[in-house]
Amino acid sequence: MPVATYGDYGFALLLIPTAAADYLEYERFDLIDSLAPHIDSGKIKVFSINSINNESWMNNDMLGEHKAIRHNQFNQYVFNEVIPFIKVATSAETPIITCGASFGALHSMNLFLKRPDIINGVMSMSGVYDLHEYTKGFSDEQVYFNSPMDYMPNLTDNWYLENIRKSHHIHILSGSGDYEDPRAAGRFAKVLYDKGINYELDIWGNDMMHDWPTWRAMLPYYIESRF
């Protein structure tokens, strides 16, 4: 599982790829270039990892139960290997913010909500926070526990809630243009509101579609204005 890194200093921005993409996707679509001023100034150090969606929810030849197993293995890879790698490459005190677009937004949010003790916040762009959107009708306990729209309304464990509430960086972003679903962002924001969790919901205009120009505009703006 390769990891691409950009920069030397600053808080750690952990990028999760979209859909069936890889660890170089954000570079390939010029999002890393759009972040260059913040990378070069030492504001952020970027870590971009591989997805295994092609070995889980995007694999049409795989049983749903096995897709869920692979999803959980990806979570554990991030928690047990990527986060320690970032800490070694930065410092034990360096904040880590997960970030992703599209399917990467769901993964980013899910990873943060599951381990708010080691991940300090999330910026999710153009996400749908219901994993059932990707499971082709399959549902089991593991789908439930990886679908923030399912498990968050029923979360009562104070350890999780209090650690999530400590974050000052829960940013839910969406455009309103073609193939965007701002209502999904709003529905999930309402779940957080009902749990007393501070968040920022920002819905951009109809000219912002579900595509790279939107994300290249959104992410540098939030790095500049919120950190």
Number of helices: 10
Quaternary structure annotation: single chain
Order of helices and strands: EEHHHEHEHEHHHEHEH
Principal-axes shape call: globular
Please state the second-level CATH architecture.
Answer: 3-Layer(aba) Sandwich
Order of strands in the sheet with the most strands? 1-3-2-4-5-6-7
CATH class: Alpha Beta
Averaging pLDDT over every residue, what do you get? 96
Low-confidence stretches: none
Report how far apart the termini are. Answer: 29 Å
Helix content: 40-55%
How many beta-strand elements?
A: 7
The biggest sheet amounts to: 7 strands, mixed
Beta fraction of the residues? 15-25%
Task: Characterise the protein shown here.
With 227 residues, this protein is α/β, with parallel strands linked by helices. It has a single domain, classed as Rossmann fold. The protein has a seven-stranded mixed sheet, with helices on both faces. The radius of gyration is 16 Å and the shape is globular. The two termini are 29 Å apart.
Descriptors:
42% helix; alpha/beta; 227 residues; Rossmann fold; globular
Would you spell out the secondary-structure blueprint of this structure?
Blueprint: E1 3-6, E2 11-16, H1 25-28, H2 31-34, H3 36-40, E3 44-49, H4 64-89, E4 96-101, H5 103-114, E5 121-125, H6 141-144, H7 148-151, H8 158-165, E6 170-174, H9 182-194, E7 200-203, H10 212-226
Would you summarize the structure shown here?
The chain is of the alpha/beta class and 227 residues long.
